[in-house]
Design brief:
single chain; 139 residues; mainly alpha
């Protein structure tokens, strides 16, 4: 089967299952309040992590380094914010895991296990130079 198809059907089924189980334990109103609370807290922490990643990226740019890790972190923080807005406990768990820098590095290593981040972040050994043409004006 297509993995996208399984994700498209499996994720909502898992979310509904978790909502019913947790709602049965803590009550319907508490479950709805918990969903809103995780969304608000998650968006707040996504904002903080986004600002921190932006600052780190600017420092790398000032040092003439390519901010590869910061770009990937920014994209994963945006994805985490999207997951936290979607109602459900499983998506909230994945979103919170993406917001923590330590677990984000683990996700990156799993996603890029064939090519480690250190190979991506290697600096270029190119030496910049200028060519001066020594033609004399014949005027």
């Amino acid at each position: 089967m297509n993995p996208f198809f399984l994700l498209f059907l499996g994720l909502p089924a898992l979310e509904i299952f978790l909502l019913i189980k947790i709602g049965g334990q803590v009550g319907a109103l508490n479950t709805v309040a918990l969903i809103f609370l995780t969304a608000i807290i998650g968006i707040y922490f996504a904002k903080l992590q986004g600002i921190q990643t932006l600052r780190s990226g600017m420092v790398n740019l000032y040092q003439n380094k390519v901010p590869v890790y910061e770009i990937m972190s920014g994209a994963s923080i945006a994805f985490a914010a999207l997951l936290l807005i979607i109602p459900g406990f499983f998506t909230d768990l994945i979103g919170f895991l993406l917001l923590i820098p330590f677990t984000r590095k683990i996700f990156f290593k799993l996603a890029f296990k064939n090519k480690p981040l250190t190979d991506i972040e290697k600096e270029n050994d190119t030496i910049d130079g200028e060519v001066i043409d020594k033609k004399k004006d014949d005027s």
